[in-house]
Amino acid sequence: MEIRICNYVPGDEDEILDLVRTGFDEFVSMDCNEEGIKFFYCFITLEEFRKRNQSETFTLTARTKDDQIVGMIEVRNDGHICLLFVRNDFKRMGIAYSLFNKAKDICLQKAGGNVIMTVNSSIYAVDIYNKIGFTAVEKVNTINGISFVKMAFMVK
């Protein structure tokens, strides 16, 4: 299957955020308490997503030939991955890896050299990030009701 990695285009927010909500509900929410679920849903409101993408983050999407969004990554300008989700029926196809590689290239360009990319990985995604090359730098932590593992990847 042909998948293209593209910059997020204003107007795609509903499709992107629906993908994020679905993935969160199915794979991440079980490691959050009620406060964490509310916190996450506030983070992914349309207004907050647009605001972040105007200044402090960039978002890439993975699209099929017919322009359906099947994956997304949002990365802060300092190299921190805020969100990385792939539609369930498109998992295990290398889409997360492709999104990460494109984001890594953008971070290298912005930094003009080495950069350490970080992520607060959900418990579910730790193995996925390990396969990409991330290393856990802390044990499981819970902040704002969301349990996660802080991980890092040195980009050269």
Which keywords apply here?
alpha+beta, Aminopeptidase, 8 strands, globular
CATH fold annotation of one domain: Aminopeptidase
Specify the structural class: alpha+beta
Measured as a percent range, the helix fraction is 25-40%
Give the beta-strand count: 8
Characterize the main sheet. 8 strands, mixed
The CATH homologous superfamily of one domain is termed: Gcn5-related N-acetyltransferase (GNAT)
Percent of residues in beta strands? Answer: 25-35%
Assign an overall shape. Answer: globular
Gyration radius, in Å? 15 Å
Mean pLDDT: 94
Model regions low in confidence, pLDDT < 50 over at least 5 residues: none
CATH architect. name of one domain: 3-Layer(aba) Sandwich
Counting DSSP H or I runs of 4 or more residues, the number of helices is 5
**CATH class descriptor name of one domain:** Alpha Beta
Distance between the termini: 30 Å
The helix/strand order is EHHHEEEHEHEEE
Description:
There is one protein chain. The protein has 156 residues and is of the alpha+beta class. The protein has a domain at 4-110: Gcn5-related N-acetyltransferase (GNAT) (Aminopeptidase), CATH 3.40.630.30. The chain has 5 helices and 8 strands; from the N terminus they run βαααβββαβαβββ. Strands 1, 2, 3, 4, 5, 6, 7 and 8 form an 8-stranded mixed β-sheet that branches. Helix 4 links the parallel strand 4 (80-86) and strand 5 (115-121). The relative contact order is 0.17. The model has no long low-confidence stretch (mean pLDDT 94).
